[in-house]
Amino acid sequence: MKKETLGQVLKQRRGAYDLTQRELARKLGVKASHVAYLENGRRRPSLSLLARLADTLALDKQRLFLLAHPEAHWIVGKDRDAAPAKRQDNAWRKFVADRPMLTRHKVTNQELKVLQQVNMLGCISAPNQFLFILNAIRQAVEEE
């Protein structure tokens, strides 16, 4: 059985709504060629475009995110193991203690406050997950 792709889901749902690529692009505020690239797996949508796709095509946002970013499945997937609180605190301590990494990635104090709030959700078990989340937030903010 072939694994489902973001492009397949978008094309199938667009067809179910009887929309052309051009019509969908107009609703999303992008070019028709961008929709074609997404459907053919040649581009990944931004987080804000993923949200618009989900809203426009009545699709689950988490499902679309995981199709667009399968490498993130272990972070947000339903089948991930619950990490003990001690490991989560340890991940946060390691992240904020790595000053060279924070400097290299230009992490601001405001971004650290946001990430500390994310840490309180209890879903982070490794320091590098904070960078993944931070980059996703930065990308979403840039596009608004």
Written description of the protein model:
- The longest helix has 17 residues.
- This protein has two domains: 71 residues, 434 Repressor (Amino-terminal Domain) (Orthogonal Bundle), CATH 1.10.260.40; 59 residues, no CATH class.
- α2 crosses α3 and α4 crosses α5.
- It has ten helices and no strands.
- It has 144 residues and is mostly helical.
- It is 68% helix and 0% strand.
Count the DSSP helices. 10
Helix content: 55-70%
How many strand segments? 0
CATH topology grouping of the largest domain: 434 Repressor (Amino-terminal Domain)
Which sheet architecture does the biggest sheet show? none
CATH superfamily of the largest domain: lambda repressor-like DNA-binding domains
β-strand amount: under 5%
> What is the succession of H and E elements?
HHHHHHHHHH
Detail the poorly predicted runs. 79-84
Q: Regarding CATH, which class of the largest domain? A: Mainly Alpha
CATH architecture verdict of the largest domain: Orthogonal Bundle
Terminus-to-terminus distance:
38 Å
Mean pLDDT: 84
Q: Gyration radius, to the nearest Å?
A: 18 Å
Helix/strand/pairing class, anyone? mainly alpha
Give the quaternary arrangement of the chains: single chain
Put the structure in a nutshell.
The protein has ten helices and no strands. The protein is mainly α and 144 residues long.
